[in-house]
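User: Here's a chain of 243 residues. Predict its fold as tokens.
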Amino acid sequence: MNGHPCKILALFLLLGAAAIPRASAQAADCETAFTQCKAQCGQSGIFNMEQGQPVEQSDFKEKCETSCTAGLESCREQDSKNACSSFYYHCGGGCPSTVAEQPSGSELLGTNAFYQCAMSCKEGKTGCEKTQTAAPEPRKRSGAFEGCAEARLACETTCVANGSPLDDAVFPEKCRKACAAGVPGCQKEASPPAGCNASFFSCAAECPDVEKVDGDYKETSDDGNRCLNACSAGSQYCHSIAG
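Assistant: Prediction complete.
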């Protein structure tokens, strides 16, 4: 190739930029979600319910930001229809149940870390949705998403969706166990729609304060209602992924 070296370099840089997949440039919604999620992680206060006092120093921020990163990665590979939900659920599904107090490194179990992290994920989802509304950028799914696993993530994140910062740590763990129980039932079914339906019933069967009445599950307390809502959110998102 003849020509001035600077012009040749400029041409190669231009061609290289053109080779970048368009989807990479279209993830502004995901980047916004990540930025707002991380910012919220740094502002969230952790409270130790067992001791009745705030946790002054812990590794919560680092764990929370790791969850934001998981949300970002899934969002980038998801189609635009499900991208913001994918960010929220993958972020929330990775939220910590425990934190390590600093500088001692002692593990603290009875904190609101899971709730505060999930709220950071929700803040990211809100930013993602606002970005999509302001500047829609349709894109196709580029990654692999398995419906049963997605149902669990959506379920776990929804476990604390209607909670409060001062809720104890007992219910979220019971709810997350119910979410996990939905996976085997989901995977036993041959078709995705049937699996998504089965995930709800397998999950609901393990919810606290729930009883089976005429083939359906009814809550006997607010915790039972919250858990059933989480199971339902998982099933619904599973259908959205499968569709």
